[in-house]
Amino acid sequence: MRLSGEQVAGVEVVSMGGGQRVFGALWIPDFPVMAGLRAHPGKDLDRCVPCAVLAVDESRVAGKARDKLPILALNREGWLAGLAPGWSLGQALVRCPGLRIVSRDKESEKELREALFQLAESISADVEMTAEDAVVMDLAMVRERVCLDRLHLDGAEVCWAKAPTPDLAHLAARCDETQGCMVSADDMAGLPVSVLAALGGNARTLELLDTWGLGCLGDFMQLPRQGVVERLGPQAGYWHDVLHGKTCRLLKLHRVPESLAQEMDFEDPVEGVEQLVFALKRMLHVLEGRLAARHLAAACLELRLMMERGGEMFRCLNFAEPQAAVEGMLGPLQALLEALRLESAVVRMELDVETTFATAAQREWFGKHLPEPERWVETLGKLEAMLGAGRVGVPLRENSFRADAFGLRQAWLSEGGASSYGNSGEMVVLENAALPLRRFRPPREVAVAHQSEAGLPQPLAILSGEYKGRILRRRGPFLASGEWWDAALAWQRLEWDVELASGVGRLAFVKPETWSMEGWYE
Amino acid sequence: MSEEFIEFRGMTGFSFLEGACEPEAMVRRAEELGYGALGVLDRGGFYGSARAHHAALEAGVRAITGAILDWEGGGVPVVCLRREGYRALSRHLTDGHLLGTRGEDFRLDDGSLAVLTGGRDGPLVSALLRGDRKAALHAAEGLVRSFGKGNVYVEISRHGLRDDGRLVKQLCELAGHLRLPLLAVNAPLHAERGGRRLADAFACLRHHVPLDGAGRLLAPNGERYLKTPRQMVALFRDLPEAVSNTLRLRDRVEFTLENLNYRFPDFPDERGNPLSLGEQATLLRRFCYAGAMRRYGVCSSKVKAQLEHELAMISRLGFQGYFLIVYDLIEFAKGRGILCQGRGSGANSAVCYCLGITAVDPVGGGLLFERFLSENRKSWPDIDIDFPSGERREEVIQHVFRKYGERGAAMTANVITYRGKSAFREMSKVLGFPVSVADRFSERIRGWSRDANGAESPQEEFRKILEGIVPESHPRFGALSHLYHAVRGMPRHLGQHSGGMIVCDHGLDSVVPLQPASMPGRTVVQWDKDDCEDMGIVKIDLLGLGMLAAMEHALEIRSRRGEPVDLAKIPMDDKAVFELMCRADTVGTFQVESRAQMATLPIMRPKCFYDVAVQVAIIRPGPIVGDLVHPYLNRRNGHEKVDYIDPCFEGILERTLGVPLFQEQVLRMAMEIADFTGAEADELRRAMAFKRSDERMERTVGKLRERMVKKGISPEVREKVVGSIGSFAQYGFPESHAISFALIAYASCWLKVHFPAEFYTGLLNHQPMGFYSVNTLIQDAKRHGIRVLAVSVLESGEQTEVLDDGKLRLGLNRLKGLSAQVMRRVIAWQSNGVVARSLEGFLSEVKPGKKDRRLLARAGALNGLAEIGHRREAMWQVELPLFDDLLNTERSGGQVLPMMTAGERLEADFETQGASVGSHPMKLWRELHGTKRILKSADLQNLPNRCPVEVAGMAICRQRPGTAKGHCFISLEDETGIANLFVPVKTYTVFRQVITSSSFLLAKGHLQRSEGDQATVYVTFIQPLGGATDKHAAGSHDFH
Could A422 and B215 be called an inter-chain contact, meaning their C-beta atoms sit closer than 8 Å? Predict the structure, then answer.
């Protein structure tokens, strides 16, 4: 994330430790709108027109219901047009027909939040992510001059304020009257009561304060504290104390989560498996230590190999049981690597892990699900290396009348974790063959002489393929059709058991004009 | 063609979410395929049998009745061979629904019922599919024990599945072992092969899965349709006895629904013994003449002649018991002080009038008795009685249940069918479309039915709408379109008719199965009112009318206040009442209060009671669509010459100036111009009322045209006559019905004129009802000099009360969300006699919860308590928890919170009560933002035509009726009254968003003075009223 703006030279002197505490708060107004606009820089949205973000994704509703969607946030132009969050879209469009709706972009919001945090971190080491759109910094230990006036982020305005307590700074940053100031408790009296929402707590209490007709925080501050606590509870008492500057809480310092991902660039491209395994083993040893320090285990490993000629190979290895030891993780990976046929040498290797608790996968009271899960995963790895990704699993009949329809359940999932096939009320159809059927996969297309009876074809002789000959007897047709509701997927099929001089087989006709031998009764 | 095969297992849409065609469609298809008979057996009852029977009679096919009975291991189809069997099965089905009796408990082996062993969901085949042949044998033996050996048929079917052969083989072996006959069936779920798609969709709805996830819950193929007898013979060529047994079983069937043997109960004497027909006739005559003396004072020869004519007819038709029973019901209601009035065609009868069933004098009014009863009519007379809605009506209904017993009376059903929106919503859900697609469709379909009257067919219109939502290239476009059309009109579930009751003298449960209604203490039959009528079952409609409840309450208050009023004796020529109507001051009254009625009243200027009846009848969709309103008003006001369409109609249409406004007139016209007999006229009436299909109407109109052509009637007259009938087919309104409604309308106006305090109190206590919000009613009351006092815990009762002729006190029930227990405790606290009432005492005795405390304080209901100065003071005090300590909590603390401003009080009132007794929001707005340019509604009365105006107000009604070609009508209320706006379609299109989303509007345009000197603003520009807040707005009656 690129940071811009002056971050060092300044004009203000911050008081040092030992004297009065000073906290600074940064706040991005209209955060969802700003994030949404950042996601579409200069494309089809003109920042100078009123824009709004809705509380619900508008693509999920239509018609009249869309008009009732409440507005979550507005940009400055939206505010200037007289709109406010909470208005329904219909109302807002009546007031401001040119209002543009910006879709909410969670990813962009995350980026903007990170940018705000980094901006704060560049000023003070002690930063609290107070809200999704605000941070509070402890400025007591900052020995440099800091000019908060000149801070800004790309595509978003940053408001700030300083105060002797974190909460006062946080509140003050959100109001035009106190923005960019060092405020004291006395300065808070003119702010609107609604700003208290930034301190969290019960929304109902705020509604109640609204019905009490309190015009500003000064009115609230003048209420007798005991009376307020008796009526509204300790939360309101806390607000009272905050506004009077009587309380100064500790900041909940924000720490960036650590990643367990590792990467290794090879000076010389690696062609042999041994070298790869050796490098991998080193990475796993590091991983083992990190996992042990966090009392975690690996649920799955993600291995990515970058090739010399471009291209990459990615494999995700799921463990049947959580693994924390190098031995448990290396075996399946080694089996995988040994079976690999790579087109060129490897120049870079990345290893990431999805963690879980070490006991998370024990599904039985007194033992593990598999006696030797490592071997099971290793075997599966070998099979997959031979057959290809996604071609190893437990075959299950699909919930369909379509002939020979089956799917694969992932082999490392337990029974309970598998998708449930079949329904309790499903129609039962018995296979009616006493003889075992050797199925041809794929079915063998044949030419068939046939005649039409009551609109259905009746086969007379098979004219091509391995099982040619006149049909002596036949049973059927057995009719099946399905997915009629989708023009692209609809199918219709007729089947017969046909007796030829050479034996009995299963013949199928699929509309519009395909005959095939499906199998042979042994 | 000799018959080869009979299908015994037809299932219809009345096997809810299983069968995929209507009974009529199945029967029609059977007729086309040459079936002589068809079994229609629905699951758990005879739901579709009545309709199948009716369709079969018309098609010349014999409908075989039966039902699929729940049995251990699955359902078994049971066929009724004789009436005793039908009755026993009906009773058993009732037991199943009411008592949970199981099928295995049923035993009737005398040959009046035959049973089939069932299909894949039956006990035999499901056991065989499990490979449990022993269980299959056991199930078959169980059926033999219950129904007798000669009455059990082993059902076999072939649907083109791989295991058909093995199952049939096993079933044949089982049949051979037990020496039971085989019976071939195809068990069709739909009439045509294509019906499989809807059957699959129903399967999905039944199992709550989309088609993509339904898998093997769906049919494997489309073979469950009604096949031709020849196909079935070919299919079972190897088992000819299975086919021939269908004919043998058909020959055993003696019963059809024609032999239902329903009998209306005979009226009993004082000891409860039923009277003979002769005795009942004598009793009826006695009651009639006694009533005639009460009604007319002197029984004139004209009255006597009419009574004799009617009594003779009633005796000939054997309906005396029916009239006596309805009379008994009316007497019960009157004995309990329950206001009631008959309406509908019953009001054409002098007997009904003399018995007190109706309040309209048909002799004086010259009404047509034959519209009510004639020898040509096959069905029973139909008397609808209005009772006050709510508990009083329930009292009467429960009286009927008590009198005829749980199994002797029941409500008629109401078959809820798939309509446009529900059809699209369910089918799009099944096909996996997102909910937003259905939302968009619902949005666009509004007004579609009325537009469909244009040149395009509904299918084309639907296609256009759908193309705007789902692209035609979508792979499921075709399926959605097909399923939508297929499911429309199909039964969805069984509801309960609002008031239709049927009674029987020998156990209604043996006539039609009963099942519990959703309301406790009620049972409902499996047929709807039309089915009951088709089956000759007499229905009495006990309907609930909110206005009657309000009027009853008003009269009760009046009599409590020492001046009882008898509505039957009020003068029907009260000048003040007609003046009220002429100035359209009818807010809150019955039938004449709508915006359209109020716009017409000053033009119509009713001068007598019959004018009120015309007024009630004329502002209806039928006359409006038929373009009858303007001709009538023009002729009435002398702007147009009276035209009787044809000279022969002069006598019929004289009273309505040549415009056919009433159903009776249309029937008489048909009798006159096309020589329709009484029976044919009755058929026309039924076709007009029969909402289920247009087919009957088309047939009857065809006959009418044919006769007119034969009589040499000119094409112009023919078209006018057919046009008049077409309008009524959609919204028929009989004259007697109009007169009955006009009586209530007149009475409500009379109450408003003479006892406004009682009138408004009655209305406020029976909300929701009518056209206007409580706030509008309160504003109207204030304009009529009534002072409405706010809710107070010290003074208010549970309901709104009259304090004196000019003062009301709103009741505690006006507070939204105040619990009933708290209300009761407040009333008890009021009556405990404590003089100094403190908040502390109130809270400790009444113990309202936190929500109730806040509500009472915010609404100002605590303001009268000793230490409470204003609402905010109360709001501060009630937040302090009640500790119930020995020492009282100190609550006084001076003025902590500021007093509410007028605007805040208004906001609090609307939030807590939806209405305010304070200033009108527009008055407050005018004080802050008003200019002389923006007029009040009262100012419009003094301005000339075409004068440019600007008017502002609170929207209380927005209407865009289907008959208005897209134009919109808005009523804007302010502190002086209501201003009417007309927004032409082009303006509406531009300002739609403003009109639909803003509670306060500022409209610009010019004044239009229409006939009747009504001032309407023709709007050219409209915008939200700046400075007004929606928090000060009452509810609006929009787009109903």
Answer: yes
Distance, CA of B349 to CA of B739 (rounded, Å): 13
Mean pLDDT by 10 residues, chain B (1040 residues): 84 94 94 94 93 92 94 92 93 91 84 93 92 92 92 95 92 94 96 94 94 92 94 93 95 90 82 85 92 86 90 87 89 89 81 88 76 68 85 89 86 90 93 87 65 54 82 90 92 88 84 88 89 84 90 91 82 92 92 87 89 87 71 85 84 85 82 80 72 66 86 84 69 76 92 95 90 90 93 92 93 93 92 75 88 94 87 90 59 74 92 91 90 89 89 90 80 91 91 86 90 85 88 74
Kindly give the residue spans of alpha helices, DSSP state H, lying in B369-476: 391-404, 420-430, 435-445, 448-451, 458-467
**What's the rounded Cα separation, in Å, for the pair B171 and B5?**
20
Chain B hits for A234, Cβ within 8 Å: none
Q: How far apart are CA B854 and CA B834, in angstroms?
A: 23
Please state the pTM of the whole predicted model: 0.74
C-beta atoms of B439 and A480 within 8 A? no
Q: Are B369 and B362 in contact (CB under 8 A)?
A: yes
Q: B110-142 burial, b for 16+ CB within 10 Å, e for fewer? A: eebbbbbbbbbbbbbbbbbbeeeeebbbebbeb
Q: Which residues of B touch A400 (CB under 8 A)?
A: 215-216
Beta carbons within 10 angstroms of residue B496's beta carbon = 19
CATH numbers and ranges of domains, chain A:
5-28+109-243 (3.30.70), 40-104 (3.40.1170.60), 262-387 (3.30.1490.100), 437-521 (no CATH)
Partner A contacted by B895 (CB < 8 A)? no
A248-255: long-range contacts, CB 8 A cutoff, minimum separation 24: A248/A21, A248/A164, A248/A165, A248/A166, A249/A165, A249/A166, A249/A167, A251/A23, A251/A126, A251/A127, A251/A128, A251/A136, A251/A138, A251/A166, A252/A128, A252/A129, A253/A126, A253/A127, A253/A128, A254/A117, A254/A127, A254/A128, A254/A129, A254/A135
Separation of alpha carbons B45 and B516, rounded Å: 13
d(CA A43, CA A34): 14
Q: List C-alpha distances in Å: A44 to A40, A41, A155, B514, B522.
A: 7, 8, 15, 65, 63
